[in-house]
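Sequence and structure are no longer studied apart. To make this concrete, we show below a single chain and its fold as tokens.
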Amino acid sequence: LKQVVALQPDSGTARMNLGMGLVMSGETSAGIEELEKAEALYPESEVATIKIIKAHLANKSFDEALKASLAYRENHPDSITAHILLGTSYMTMGDSANAGKVFEEALVIEPGNISANSGLAAIALQSGDLDKAKGYYRDAIEKHPGALAPSMNLAAVEHAQGNFDAMQDVLNQAISANPDALAPRLSLSRFYLKRAQHQKIIELLSPVRDNNADNPEVRGLLGESELAVGDYTRAVDDLSHFVKLVPKNAQAHYSLARAYAGDRDRNGYYRELRTVVELDEKHINARTELIKLMLAEKNTAEAGEHIEILKSQAEDQPEVLTL
């Protein structure tokens, strides 16, 4: 990109590309300098100006971001982007009053604008007015049905207020509007997990399993839920994939061991229990089950070694004494 600029020093596009490349590589000051040169070459274009302000914000040069944002809004008084960037700059400076005024102006230019409503909601949350914040999120969703960001934020506020039915309604509407979106499904699944509503988790996450095959939370929640409802074959499949994604997670291997046990796969059960105690020598349940398997196979020598370890950890537990 530097070579291109050297060959075409009067190309605003070349300088803009170089500026963004420098910013993305961490050379923010040099990048902004190139963006400012691009802006000077094409003063009628807003692109370089927007990138300059965003670079200042990313670099936490908030005074510079505010200065550039004020100039941008002055030059483009009807620009929704200019207002959003100015409001954001005020917010980073801790000036909620001016930020609120600018975001309100933005809503006049573009009713229902998601960024403006989100900014105003953030200000309301800072002051503790949760109902007012919900109003802004609802306005954004009304004008932009299915919009994920305000939907997720509205659901979070409803949850904080204990309005669990309303929270579920918001998330289900977001899922209906965005069937492939993972965030609302996971949020609702976490809620159901705390209430042991495992079948609902399976219904929520099964449709997106294939497209999120390597997402550890999806595979883990599905596997644990399938284990809880007794679908051991499916649990083995999901938890086997889960432990590949989190190989050092002893509890994940223990869940897989229990799934193998339910699926009557003795070898898998044995193997995973051994893995658990290797990863976590203080996992009493896994070691206890492993000892029982060894005793059933008359492997008393190795069972005795594990019993000695268990005695040092939980000698006063009746089951340990029985073993």
